[in-house]
Amino acid sequence: MWRGGGGKRGGNPARPAVAHRDSLPRTPPQKYSEPTVTQPHAPRGSGAADGVVLAALLLFGGGLGARAGEGTLAQAEGTPAADAGQAQALPQQDAAAPGESGDSEDVTDDERAVESAVTSEIDEHPDAGAPEHPAEVNAVPATAANAVAQHASHLEGLALWRKAKLTGAGDALGYFSEAADGKRVRISIEPALQKQMVKLLRTYQPMQGALVAIDPKTGKVLALVEYAKDGKSDGLATRPLYPAASVFKIITGAALLEAGVSPDAETCYHGGLRGIVGKLLEDKPHMDRRCMSLSMALAKSANVVFAKMAVKHLDGESLRKEAERFLFNRPIWDVPVEASPANIPDGKLDLAKSAAGFGKVKLSPLHAALIASAVGNGGVAYEPSLIEEVDGEPFKATGSSRLLKQETATALRDMMKYTVTEGTATSSFRERGRSVLGDIEVAGKTGSMSNHRRPFMDYSWFVGFAPADDPKIAVAAVVVNGLKWRIHAPYVAREAFRAYLVGGALGQPPVARVHRRHRRHR
């Protein structure tokens, strides 16, 4: 199915009223071949002639191994530089190990509320669960639920973005690059949003940080920011380097909804503060004194509730299929990026852990932004693209694919709203008792995981979209910190929403405010 991807561009969009060790070695950049040409597009008009096909392509004609300058896509002015080091992987594990921690329901208004991770046997091989070879686009049948969109050729979006320059003024301000055939290409990155996010990460200097923002209704990439304190940031936004953690609860939640579980269905439970073990999966009325609905379990990232619901209503096969619908273990259309691996086991306990976000699942910010886009856009995800215009003509052709049913997406969206209003991200989206974004409603999901091996690594995620009922932007942010930290991903995502929908200066992160109050009262 093909739909128009972009209207007229000009300045800022219309704005609503304000009202988460020993190291995991980095897998070398993978080489991808171009997809087979099977479906050329007709030109839109004279400006699209001469071989400019409607091939929405995100990224990667230049290859993930291409080197770009320090800071890569996160330059001081938001402009890519040409000569940078490949990002080096920070120490990671494929699944939570004893001593790690993840989201918890026990503190409802703190995105960093954690509980000790699952006490499970962990595969010691650092690349366990990752695909041995890169996924091939042609390996996905055209009749699959998420059929790969095949194009006549590629406008190499990432390669063009890396050499783009910020030019123009006012409504004409934008990033422009020259294609191989000499045509002038306008990149879809929004200058104000890109610059603000670059500024934020450079100000607070986490070990690593990445953000991808997408227009859910067109697939146009609005921001693509990669930051590493050591300067080696290339690929942080586009490779599945990070544990998905509780972001995977979005996939489990969708699977439960499609299995007939109501958002209001309650599960009673006990324990779970120190991990998920087999005995916690059994119903024990005399001990299960706390109950929680599916909606609130997602909002508060209640691991035990998700674990119990999964073993009651799902099996390994059904959760694997749901993960594939959400583009795990498969290419993202014809974009030649490394597939996000999701190793979903069949055993009861291991299934429970995976469903709660402690499985061998990795995710890229690009993929996470697509997940948010699909939920916010009624279950339909558009193929991501960095191309806005070619020689002044709108670049509209974008493939789309339905990832989940409309009713499932609607229910999941409503559940994700509670994350911000009553759940793990509430403190990040409120200041002095008021919403930072005024009347703009946000739907999202946090994720967090800590690895207490040396060096200590703390991962945090926020994946969401706004305005919740009619999204203009979907955001995925991931931040990696050490023992000392100043920001986490929910704050980064909040500032992306603010920059795009409201405008204004950067706000303070929640922890910074608490720290200053503490000092004043000493």
Describe the structure.
The chain is of the alpha+beta class and 522 residues long. The protein has 11 helices and 22 strands. A 7-stranded antiparallel beta sheet has the order 3-2-20-21-22-7-8. α2 runs antiparallel to α10 (489-502), α3 crosses α6 and α5 crosses α7 (348-358).
Q: Which sequence of strands runs across the widest sheet?
A: 3-2-20-21-22-7-8
Strand content is 15-25%
Overall geometry: globular
Count the domains.
1
Which structural class should the secondary elements be placed in? alpha+beta
- Quaternary arrangement of the chains shown? single chain
Low-confidence stretches: 1-77, 81-85, 91-100, 104-154, 513-522
Distance between the termini: 62 Å
Text of the CATH class: Alpha Beta
Tell me the CATH architecture.
3-Layer(aba) Sandwich
CATH fold node name: Beta-lactamase
> Superfamily at the CATH H level?
DD-peptidase/beta-lactamase superfamily
Sheet with the most strands? 7 strands, antiparallel
Number of helices: 11
Question: What features would you highlight for this structure?
Answer:
single chain, 522 residues, alpha+beta, seven-stranded antiparallel beta sheet, 22 strands, globular, disordered N terminus
Précis, in short:
The protein has eleven helices and 22 strands.
List the helices and strands and how they pair.
Elements: E1 2-3, E2 101-103, E3 114-116, H1 157-162, E4 165-167, E5 174-178, E6 184-187, H2 191-204, E7 208-214, E8 221-228, E9 242-243, H3 249-258, E10 266-269, E11 290-293, H4 294-299, H5 303-313, H6 316-325, E12 342-343, H7 348-358, E13 360-363, H8 365-376, E14 380-382, E15 387-390, E16 393-394, E17 398-402, H9 406-421, E18 430-431, E19 434-435, E20 443-451, E21 457-466, E22 473-481, H10 489-502, H11 510-520
Antiparallel strand pairs: 1-17, 2-3, 2-20, 4-5, 5-6, 6-15, 7-8, 7-22, 9-13, 10-11, 12-13, 14-17, 15-16, 18-19, 20-21, 21-22
Helix pairs in contact: 2-10, 3-5, 3-6, 3-9, 5-7
